């Protein structure tokens, strides 16, 4: 039909000249702003200037070249992003880009093993009971979705850092919330490229692919001796970074009352070999989970958990202090409210409860030491948008009570992925400088003092500290 729109082949770009396209955008802008003005609505500062829109429209196609035709035809939120960007609504465009990213992350989880993902991503036993199928994925906030995908290998460490930055910008500079932030076309195109590279088109690495196959075998049938030997051989060189999430997932599956007897037997036969590759941190976590089961009256789950711990003579990892599980669960809750909306209102009560369970002497069980210190540093650095005024003095008070050993770990927290993600943000960088001032006088060892001086003298941004060759060399002096 004459004058009708003809569909273009998937993946092709319009043949209109840039000048013609820009003129069309300008004509649309004049028309829509005139309509707004006629209705008495504001027109100033509503749309991004034409130059930035032109930059986005010129650069976005380069990011799309990595997508297959099948992926392109399914990427409706990317279409919405580009349309919103073309008319000057960059904040809405960022929101659509994040929607596409979350949708793709959830698809990766479902295609991998959703139950295993829940065991790793949701640290609370109580909340994890509500997560059963892929329909429950929206119950997890975006931060847990990202962190869980990183832990089980669905996104890389570099990808996590880039996506965490996009998540932060989506929360504070998109149409998701009122804001005055300015975005530009290159930023949007770059973030589109990052989401495509690190989520949509990212293949499984070798270990993640093997873990996926293992999980299928464990739950589908009783494993024979040769398969057990094959899997335990795979465990021999498995790094703790991959062994810990796998152990956590199998622990959760074993303590689930609905797990079949064949799967239970498979896990029992694999557990000793996997246990040998896990870190003390995750082993203590199993002890805490046993304590929580007992405290909540979940005796069936507690019995199953004790079976796994006894199988590997893991009594040393059972919680001895009655306060341990309280501190552990409070740290989990504090992290949850810190990353949730209304954190400025919700953080202080949890911070006060943490101060109460820690006690005047701040006697932290050795099994919780690392989690406690890194958790405090993380919330002290803020979410990047503002300080939780009523909670911040409590964090500072607890940090001031650090022992020299705890202060040493706080100094080295710039190697932790979650802390690194925060150190990209100006406010968190200011709080990092304040943290260094607080712990400085507690650093009594020569190695700590020399590392502190090197950190203070570092000329780059603090999120780059762990990449510095000289600082890397100094970090080798520390055992934990």
In short:
The protein has 480 residues and is mainly alpha-helical.
What is the end-to-end distance?
A: 72 Å
Poorly predicted segments:
1-13
Structural class based on helices, strands and sheet pairing: mainly alpha
What is the gyration radius calculated from CA atoms?
25 Å
Largest sheet data: none
The topology string of helices and strands comes to: HHHHHHHHHHHHHHHHHHHHHHHHH
Q: Indicate the mean pLDDT.
A: 88
Helix content: 55-70%
**Beta-strand content:** under 5%
What is the tally of helical segments? 25
Tell me, briefly, the overall form: globular
How many domains? 3
Number of strands: 0
Q: What does it look like?
A:
The structure is a single chain. With 480 residues, the chain is an all-alpha fold. It has three domains: 18-200, no CATH class; 206-317; 324-475, no CATH class. It is 66% helix and 0% strand. The protein has 25 helices and no strands. It has helices at 18-38, 50-64, 69-74, 76-86, 90-112, 114-121, 125-128, 142-151, 157-173, 185-200, 206-220, 225-235, 240-254, 261-275, 280-295, 299-311, 324-339, 343-358, 369-380, 392-400, 404-411, 417-422, 426-439, 446-457, 469-475. Helix 13 (240-254) packs antiparallel against helix 14. It is globular and about 75 Å long.
